[in-house]
Amino acid sequence: MVVTFGVVAFVVLPTGGATGWTMLDKWAVFFFGCFLGWGLSRWGLVKAEPSPEGITVRNLLTKRFVPWAEIVGVQFGGGRPWCLLDLADTEQLAVMAIQRADGPSAEAEASRLAALVHVNQGEIPND
């Protein structure tokens, strides 16, 4: 994507004249492409990774490890765009890796996450 915006900015866009692009305009297009590429790459890195000790949630800008003992519930109903972890300190943590747009597979993953929370807290999940 960066290469594409670089080619567009410095090769394709016309220079000079009444409708031409200045060098500042071309650099702006190039850096916009860099920013867009960075933002899209962050979407590709979103994930939730469980371990025996807890779960690591990587969202767009943050990465957080939460021990199983701190998680009191999992929410995914009510039209929420992504799964939420209810934490013991009354905060909620979005798990952007489980998104409503994924349909039935997202519901299955949310149920799987809820089961993992119950199992790792020593409870038996109700099906």
UniProtKB/TrEMBL annotation:
<dbReference type="Pfam" id="PF10756">
    <property type="entry name" value="bPH_6"/>
</dbReference>
<dbReference type="InterPro" id="IPR019692">
    <property type="entry name" value="CFP-6_PH"/>
</dbReference>
<keyword id="KW-0472">Membrane</keyword>
<protein>
    <submittedName>
        <fullName>PH domain-containing protein</fullName>
    </submittedName>
</protein>
<feature type="transmembrane region" description="Helical">
    <location>
        <begin position="27"/>
        <end position="45"/>
    </location>
</feature>
<keyword id="KW-1133">Transmembrane helix</keyword>
<feature type="domain" description="Low molecular weight protein antigen 6 PH">
    <location>
        <begin position="51"/>
        <end position="112"/>
    </location>
</feature>
<keyword id="KW-0812">Transmembrane</keyword>
